[in-house]
Amino acid sequence: MSPGRTPDALYDAAGAARRLRVSRLLAFGPAAAGPALRRGALVAVPVGIALLVELGVGTSSRGAVATGALFVGFTGLDAPARARAGWEAAVTLPVGFAAALGVLSGTAAPTAIIAMALVGAAAGYCFAVSLRFAIAGLSVALALLVSQGLGIPAAHAPEALGFACLGGAMQAGFSLLVWALGDRTEPEGASGWSWAEARREFAQNFHLSSVSARHALRFGAAEAVAVATYWAIGMHEHGFWIPLTVLFVLRPEEEETFERLILRAAGTAVGLILATALSLWLNDDGYALAVALTVATAFAYGLLTVQYALFTAAITTYAVLLADTLGEPAFHAAGQRAIATAIGIAIAGIAFLLWSNPGERGEVR
To answer: Using CA atoms, how far apart are residues 272 and 86, in angstroms rounded to an integer?
Structure first.
């Protein structure tokens, strides 16, 4: 661990933080709402531009470029513009390849489960380095599980790669534009990146007494079980919401995970109600849906470090509204989301009940 880095530091611009403690259900923090929401609105701009083109004009990508931009945007969320562009550029190609791998592996249960287990374990192990590095890994896993769950024919893998990379490139390019237009604030160590330190952290945590290593195995196994579950019960349309829930709530620490389970359930309920009402009101208007999805994206980015339940409500609204643009009735999408979230919450909780960290729940260190 580098000098000045503290285990419980918040998600910060330098990227050295190790964890982000979520706030209680009726509390806000750790980030101040005003600056976080302004930052979220800024990072949502490329997503909004892509949505206006894809849904307003009616392109064949139908939101795929915007979703790629959404995933990549989480990586450098609170970093200064130039550092944010660097992180977004670095994760763009891995997100694209993960999307293509998801299309290729998502045609059969065995390949989907194996791919999710391996990528999930790698993403979970990224917590050994920093929270920002972990979010980069989770963004890659997110692209894999979503593209797996959409049931896209394998022949469309190159398109999945291209659309996701285009969305990521839009994010990185916009961040560079913001930097060029005057956002030149670059605190010392703004990128939070060091290959030497990353290699050292990975090597030092490569043992089962390490919380990061245990989380990697637990996370990969839970994601594999989540994928196997939706294949087993035949939930092919929106089964990917089961591993999606696991991805968002399962963290290296047991206490943090169980707090997120409660917040996830509450936020999902609010998001389902909001998304269903918006879908009925907007009535398939492409431009209006694009605006609503952009606003949901801005709130998702802005609320991630402010209130996890409200972040969940915003990202749920995005997911259900986007499903509606693909022709699925809003009530059906909302019902599928509720069922999948409940199953995902159960899998994440059971994962820690079966294998906790040393020192948790009385286990001998």
So the answer is: 34
Q: Is 22 part of a structural domain of the chain?
A: no
Alpha-carbon distance of 359 to 365, in angstroms, equals 5
Question: Beta-carbon neighbour count of residue 158 at 10 Å?
Answer: 10
Global pTM reads 0.90
Is residue 297 within 8 Å of 47, Cβ to Cβ? yes
Q: How far apart (Å, rounded) are the C-alpha atoms in residues 96 and 35?
A: 30
Any residues with CB less than 8 A from the CB of 334 and at least 6 apart, and which?
272, 275, 276, 320
Tell whether 5 is covered by a domain: no
**CA–CA dist 177, 253 (Å, integer):** 38
Q: Report the C-alpha gap between 323 and 358 in whole angstroms.
A: 41
What φ, ψ does residue 2 adopt, rounded to 5°?
Answer: -75, 160
Segment 321-349, tens digit of pLDDT: 887 776 666 677 778 888 998 999 999 99
Q: Note whether 77 and 43 are within 8 A (CB).
A: yes
Alpha-carbon distance of 321 to 72, in angstroms, equals 20
In a domain, 17, yes or no: no
DSSP at 156: G
